[in-house]
Amino acid sequence: MKPGKNKLILLVLIALLIGLVFGNFQKEPKPTLKPRNIEVPQKRSIQWNNDSEFKDSIIGLWVKKKVEYGSKKGKVSNPRVLLARLYFIGRPIDAL
């Protein structure tokens, strides 16, 4: 091997060794869990809103798009456009 290549390999190995040494010493110990059941919360802590301006803006964007026909056109967008239009006119989507 060339002397320049040997120096580069040595430098990389030293850098990796330094990284391993300092990386292992600076890690905080992981907390251990006691072997028992954990209580699951039963009440919601965040209130869910069914309607929002953001949701209406996203649905409005999909309603404005047109349905494309063809074997590769509209595979993803067509269902979204149709569902947005059904939602926009007020027809229940769950009933479909």
Main features:
96 residues, mainly alpha, 3 helices, 0% strand, flat
Structure, described:
The chain has 96 residues and is mainly α. The protein contains 3 helices and no strands. The chain has helices at residues 3-25, 53-64, 77-89. Helix 2 (53-64) crosses helix 3. The longest helix has 23 residues, at 3-25. The protein is flat and about 75 Å long. The model has no long low-confidence stretch (mean pLDDT 80).
**Residue ranges: pLDDT <50 for 5 or more in a row?**
none
Order of helices and strands: HHH
The major β-sheet equals: none
Portion in helices: 40-55%
Proportion in β-strands: under 5%
Assign the structural class, choosing from mainly alpha, mainly beta, alpha/beta, alpha+beta, or little secondary structure.
mainly alpha
Gross morphology: flat
Task: Give the CA-CA distance, first to last residue.
Answer: 71 Å
Concise structural overview:
50% of the residues lie in helices and 0% in strands.
Helix and strand layout, with pairings?
Blueprint: H1 3-25, H2 53-64, H3 77-89
